[in-house]
Design brief:
Helices cover about 40% and strands about 15% of the residues. By secondary structure, it is α/β, with parallel strands linked by helices. Strands 2-1-3-4-5 form a 5-stranded parallel beta sheet, with helices on both faces.
């Protein structure tokens, strides 16, 4: 699939973590303001068409994300708040050996890798009228510098002098590249659910819970229910760890704490009423 070199896919936090709302001037809508006031105009000034991180009406969100990660000429990656979904998508883009423009805000400290080895830009989280023009110019220059420095490939591979893996090429009768990547994304998520999540949750024998898992034969109702949970979670500022189908009429939701009975009741009322799908919750302490 040929890449559209004039499109820039933006991966960034969709919602502001509750713990960070007071630190950001925009509160719960902070990252909406960052996209509209900083990222979108800066990408346009750099000569690219910005592709937002949300997909209205998308039937398969994962497929849309993978498609944009694969085909966009550039990806702008905002690592602010160390959002796990952003890092997951950054990893996919990196594995494709295609250029990524990395940014973060000044409030984000302690990235889980040495960012000093990578070309990145720190922007001011205060998206204010008196400094926004200066911030746009700085970001636009960073985007242009990334494009020039990358020469169409990912900086990480060249920095460590590693030969990138060759991209998958579909043969007659085999899956397309997009289907292959979506399958790999699903496989990685299942591994995360079965290994990483339980290890982080286990503190003593009484706290051991069965890992959440993806069932490949899920129903349309479960798919719709999971999308609904994601929408409600974004609106309520809840950080989802994972949402996955279970059996034929259940889904399981794991979210970052503290536990919130009001949120759980709202999800249950909407999902069970609209789709006839039961919801089970796990809350990981923040």
């Amino acid at each position: 699939m040929a890449a559209d070199k004039k499109r820039c896919f933006i991966i960034m936090p969709i919602s502001t973590p509750k713990a960070m709302e007071e630190k950001y001037s925009g509160g719960a809508e902070h990252f909406d303001h960052v996209y509209e006031c900083l990222f979108e105009p800066s990408v346009k000034e750099a000569g690219y068409t910005p592709i937002p991180p949300t997909f209205g009406g998308s039937v398969n969100i994962q497929a849309s994300i993978v498609k944009n990660l694969e085909t966009a000429g550039l990806v702008l990656c905002d690592m602010s708040c160390l959002n796990p979904n952003v890092f997951f998508e950054w990893g996919i883009r990196t594995s494709l050996n295609k250029p990524v423009c990395i940014v973060k805000d000044e409030l984000t400290k302690g990235a889980p890798f040495d960012m000093s080895t990578l070309h990145h830009h720190t922007y001011s989280s205060g998206v204010e009228l008196w400094n926004i023009e200066d911030e746009r110019k700085k970001l636009m220059k960073h985007i242009q510098a990334t494009i020039e420095k990358s020469s169409g490939v990912n900086e990480l591979w060249s920095h460590f002098e590693v030969t990138a893996a060759q991209p998958f090429k579909a043969q007659e009768g085999e899956q397309s590249e997009l289907a292959y990547l979506a399958m790999q994304m699903e496989s990685l998520q299942r591994k995360f659910d079965s290994v990483i999540v339980p290890n982080r949750m286990v503190q003593d024998e009484a706290s051991v819970r069965r890992p959440l898992r993806h069932d490949m034969k899920r129903t349309e109702g479960q798919d719709r229910a999971m999308l609904c949970v994601e929408d409600i979670s974004r609106e309520r500022g809840k950080m989802l760890i994972t949402v996955a189908p279970h059996q034929t009429d259940h889904i399981r939701v794991l979210y970052a704490g503290p536990a919130d009975g009001t949120y759980e009741k709202e999800v249950r009322d909407v999902v069970e009423g609209a789709f006839g799908v039961r919801v089970e919750f796990e809350c990981m302490d923040a």
